[in-house]
Design brief:
Blueprint (H helix, E strand, L loop, with lengths): L3 H15 L23 H12 L5 H17 L4 H21 L9 H21 L1
């Protein structure tokens, strides 16, 4: 059942369409660029969209970015005392990330996952080379 307000809105939209007020809008006649959010649970899609539009990232993603920045910083450091402080910070950030995460740590970091895949594939590759 359409409420009075919705009926007024629909009438105004139809009137504007007939007058051609929507014809010169950006993207007119082009397909909509919809984002693929099929990996996001339905009950979280609207919330994620609102957060994205507000340029807010989930805390877990913010932590991952900070960990990456800290690792990059650590890579170029020469001073041992400063390196020690940054390693302590990095360990704290990783511990903090592990406390808020819902998934297994084992497959989180790409290098660990890649090593496990290589380990599994190596015996098969060696066997196929022999045969």
């Amino acid at each position: 059942m359409i409420t009075g307000f919705e009926k007024i809105v629909e009438e105004r939209i139809r009137k504007a369409q007939l007058l051609g007020e929507f014809d010169d809008l950006p993207g007119y006649g082009k397909p909509l660029a919809l984002e693929d959010d099929s990996c996001v649970p339905e009950d979280l899609r609207v919330a994620y969209k609102v957060l994205k539009n507000a340029d807010c990232l989930p805390p877990e993603i913010e932590l991952k970015k900070e960990i990456t920045r800290t690792e990059d910083l650590l890579e170029n450091m020469q001073d041992t005392a400063q390196k020690y402080r940054v390693v302590k910070k990095l360990n704290f950030l990783i511990m903090k990330l592990n406390t808020i995460r819902n998934s297994s740590v084992v497959y989180e970091m790409p290098q660990i996952y890649a090593e496990k895949v290589v380990e599994r594939l190596e015996p098969e590759e060696k066997a196929s080379r022999k045969g």
